[in-house]
Amino acid sequence: MALVAGIDSSTQSCKIVVCDSTTGKVLREGRAPHPDGTETDPAHWWSALTTASSGLLDDVSAVSVAGQQHGMVVVDEDGEVVRPALLWNDSRSAGAAHDLVTELGGPKAWTDAVGNVPVASFTVSKLRWFAEYEPELAARAHGVMLPHDWLTWRLNGSRTEPTTDRGDASGTGYWSPADNTYRPDLLVRAFGRELDVPRVAAPAETVGHTPEGAVIAPGTGDNMGAALGLGLRPGDVVVSLGTSGTVFAAHDRAVHDPSGAVCGFADATGGHLPLVCTLNAARVLGSAAAMLGTDLAGLDHLALGARPGAEGVVLLPYLDGERTPELPDAAGSLHGLRRDNMAPANIARAAVEGMLCGLADGLSALADQGVPTERVLLVGGGARSAAVRAIAPLVLAAPVVVPPAAEYVALGAARQAAWALAGTTEPPTWTLGAPEEESAHTPEVGARVRERYAEYRRATHGV
Ligand SMILES: Nc1ncnc2c1ncn2[C@@H]1O[C@H](COP(=O)(O)OP(=O)(O)O)[C@@H](O)[C@H]1O
Ligand SMILES: O=C(CO)[C@@H](O)[C@H](O)COP(=O)(O)O
């Protein structure tokens, strides 16, 4: 039996699974935390990867890394990192994004070019910010990579040329998923001069070998990894509640949404992965629990004790600003408080409902782009919450399936590693176990919750 490893280097932690390459059965797992913050020395990711994989990788035949998208890792001529990586959730580049959109002629010019309208998260916006605000450091820059590109290169012993894949490249803002090509003109527009970029590898290419001789697969972005791990069927839409909230589906065409709500990403198999991303997901639950003086289980208990609609209490959960809708400087706000409803249970319920309303808007934005939802697959750390599982079918107005608990990003990376090892045209067929939960939905109650949320959002933020 050959073993393969998948690595998920996401915002809050590094998770590793080692699987049977034929069945996908998970045999070993490891994890290690990442530091908090919106910029990180990539050395921390490497150190977490080393800790999480300690003793796990000795006998694996192939390995792959799926990483948080968009992060800007800039290296000098010797391959040394020039400054801490700016992460996808760092909003300092919001102004740079706006400037880039205006300079190219508006949102449609960008969706025509690369399927995306730059926001602060995108690498292209971060490069503009870097050139503008740190010109001396920027002068040392020789190449730019994404987090998974850099880790893949390190796994390779930094011996070969850096590589990336279609999925992660599609989140840079200077690579076109429709044309499968870089747009160096856009990189130069942002940064002022050329930079080396990683070669875009084919989906199941062997891009190198570890010093121990294991095949290294191209890797991908974390959301593309989850899509591969879940083995999506038509009509499936994933709602992932990690640090980010993401809503995405496998699709056969490139999506171009000039409203900017839907990112026209590529996937890790040669197809497409239209995706909506919010900045405020699972961490809203942790913050609400802390505010109420309880833990995550306590928050669940409180929220499940309140009625749908939280008796009129609404939380706009923009605790870290927001990406979709684009409100980088927004703060969260509580609405509808009265003497008779100002109870911890209602506030807990409003936190869960508010977080889910942002993702329900994501489902609508996907539908507007011709990507309808037949069922939602609920994954990520936040999907472990009993309250989220109970309330999601109502707010998302769709049947919700909670797949068996697993690290789907890491599993998808492992599946890609097995694919590269096998050298087949299609990825291996791995079957998931039975879902932990399947719930029907009650659209009429959820509609009222979403309406009140939208009313307060419009009144407070004008969008
Ligand atoms: N039972 C739970 N209820 C609510 N949130 C949870 C629960 N378990 C984990 N989380 C949250 O999930 C988040 C981590 O999810 P994960 O998908 O691993 O994130 P990321 O991939 O962005 O690092 C953390 O914010 C954590 O607090
Ligand atoms: O920016 C995006 C998607 O466009 C985020 O989804 C990042 O890829 C980070 O993912 P998590 O750490 O939340 O999984």
What does this structure look like?
With 463 residues, the chain is of the alpha/beta class. It has a domain at 3-222: ATPase, nucleotide binding domain (Nucleotidyltransferase, domain 5). 35% of the residues lie in helices and 20% in strands. The chain is built from 15 helices and 24 strands. The strands form seven sheets. Strands 1, 2, 3, 5, 13, 14 and 15 form a seven-stranded mixed sheet that branches. Helix 2 crosses helix 4 (123-133), helix 9 (222-230) packs across helix 14 and helix 10 runs antiparallel to helix 12 (344-368). The termini are far apart. The mean pLDDT is 97.
List descriptors.
463 residues; alpha/beta; Nucleotidyltransferase, domain 5; 7-stranded mixed beta sheet; 35% helix; 20% strand; binds adenosine-5'-diphosphate; binds 5-O-phosphono-D-xylulose
Please state the average pLDDT score.
97
Share of β-strand residues: 15-25%
Main β sheet profile = 7 strands, mixed
Number of helices: 15
Q: Can you describe this structure in just a few lines?
A:
The chain is an alpha/beta fold and 463 residues long. It has helices at 42-52, 94-104, 107-114, 123-133, 135-138, 147-155, 166-169, 184-191, 222-230, 282-291, 296-304, 344-368, 386-396, 408-422, 443-461, and strands at residues 3-9, 13-20, 26-33, 39-40, 62-67, 73-75, 85-86, 143-145, 163-164, 175-176, 181-182, 199-200, 208-209, 215-216, 220-221, 236-241, 245-248, 263-266, 272-278, 314-316, 333-335, 375-379, 400-402, 437-439.
